[in-house]
Amino acid sequence: MPIHSSCCKKSHDLAKYLASKPADILKECPAYTAFGRCPQGVKCRAGSCHTLPDGKQLVNEELASKDIVTQTNFLSNDIRKALRAKKYDFSRSDEQRKLLDAKKNNYGGDDSGLNEMSAENKRFDPETRPVKKKPIDFIGKTYLAPLTTVGNMPFRRICKEYGVDITCSEMAMAGNILKGTNGEWALLRRHVSEDIFGVQICGNNFEQLVNTSELINNECNVDFIDLNVGCPIDSVYEKGCGSGMFKTPNKMYGIINAMNNVTDFPMTVKYRTGISIKQPIAIKVTQKLDEMGIQLGIVHGRSRQQRYSKLADWDYIKQVKESSKHMQIFGNGDVFSWEDYWEKMEETKVDGIMIGRGALIKPWIFEEIKERKVWDITSNERLELLKKFCNYGLEHWGSDDIGVNHTRRYLLEWQSFLCRYVPVGLLEVLPAKMNQRPPAYYGRNELETLMASTNVADWIKISEMMLGPTPDDFVFIPKHKSNSYEG
Ligand SMILES: Cc1cc2nc3c(=O)[nH]c(=O)nc-3n(C[C@H](O)[C@H](O)[C@H](O)COP(=O)(O)O)c2cc1C
């Protein structure tokens, strides 16, 4: 059907559009440089290098013909349609559901039977495990924590360049993945540099979590699925998701067991010490997961109640590690220096350590850990890092106005953590600790001082060095309370 020109409110005068377009923010377009063509065309905010005066687009045929693919895990239209029409084949999940219902009937129709399931599904009895899994070599590897909003792909690429071994997607809601929601599927994308990569899912019921696991198993390129049993946020907890799964442990075990049975790759579970600080339950949970054949448990050494208050309890993490016969255990909480990392590895004998805020505040921590040395990074080197993030962001979110806006917002979210970094050259005592609030200080030059500012207006100023001026109506409120040293 022809579109009536009077219906469209957009300008159709290309010459006028090009003449009124604001100045480019970069000389080189990241997509054109990487792939030989820019999908944003005339709208690209670094478009001068591939746009002729008449608007025609240049293509670097040699590069474009290579069809370089740097990201995987896109949702195809066929799968989306099948999901929306509820026609996707979830036969493995259905089978698990039937097994579970049979167990429930045997045990009087409640979830208590699920408790017994794990014991019956003996880990080393090949007859009871429908899928023979090839384990991943996690031991001794550094792991970048899943980080909602800030653990996006451009940030993970930066951490990969600093040598992190394992990366994980931001938490994705299982229910939305099953609905084929674009935003949730975008969280599952994997960059080619992520050589050990998993996706983290969150949900509260069998269908959501087991079907989603089967779907990801069939349609995605991942090495493992991680179940979130740690998220403390009230709205998540109250629905029985995240750390809310601890409220009904038997139901949780049944779901995890079934997730493990419908996937061909290892499953991992990330959990806290318990719901309340007074009643840690992670040791018991670890023993159950161990019996089920879960390959890796990641224990954040705090209870749900604690959020980020008080330090993570690494003595307890050590006990969790000691309680596990086969399941590998990674510890998580407050690691902020290479000294911290190796000390905790040595003292607790965990199989590895996951790092969250330490990587957000100083992503080069992974290099420091591997080389066992402190890096007194300069403000110019940090600025180069931000430029790199922006390039990766424009490649990922697009280099038109919308992509620039997304890149800026994610950069600002990240800056809310980056500003907590205190250059080691200014510290009197090393190593720095995660929970020490530094007094306001002057850097060794203006840029270093600006980078330490906790004022959003200063973060915006820094973003403008890479992404040009912000629109007049631009407002930014950080999503995470990263400045709170308790939260
Ligand atoms: C901004 C932010 C986002 C987070 N998002 C997630 C998430 O999506 N999934 C998850 O399991 N944990 C999430 N966490 C918790 C971290 O993965 C990690 O367990 C916690 O920060 C403790 O580790 P750390 O002391 O090294 O930061 C998040 C933490 C922060 C600070």
Describe this structure in words.
Its EC number is 1.3.1.89. It is built from 21 helices and ten strands. It folds into three domains: 21-68, no CATH class; 77-371, Aldolase class I (TIM Barrel), CATH 3.20.20; 379-427 and 454-467, no CATH class. With 487 residues, it is of the alpha/beta class. The N and C termini lie far apart (54 Å). It has helices at 14-20, 30-35, 61-64, 77-84, 91-106, 112-120, 153-161, 174-178, 182-186, 206-219, 234-238, 249-261, 282-292, 314-323, 338-348, 357-361, 365-371, 379-397, 401-418, 446-451, 456-467, and strands at 71-72, 142-144, 166-173, 190-191, 196-202, 224-229, 267-272, 296-300, 328-332, 352-355. Helix content is 41%, strand content 10%. Flavin mononucleotide (FMN) is lined by residues 145-148, 150, 170-171, 200, 228, 230, 270, 300, 332-335, 355-358, 480.
Bound compounds? flavin mononucleotide
Tell me roughly what share of residues is in helical segments.
40-55%
Total domain units: 3
CATH class of the largest domain: Alpha Beta
Looking at CATH, the homologous superfamily of the largest domain is: Aldolase class I
What is shown here, in short?
Helices cover 41% and strands 10% of the residues. By secondary structure, it is an alpha/beta fold. It has 3 domains: 21-68, no CATH class; 77-371, Aldolase class I (TIM Barrel, Alpha-Beta Barrel); 379-427 and 454-467, no CATH class.
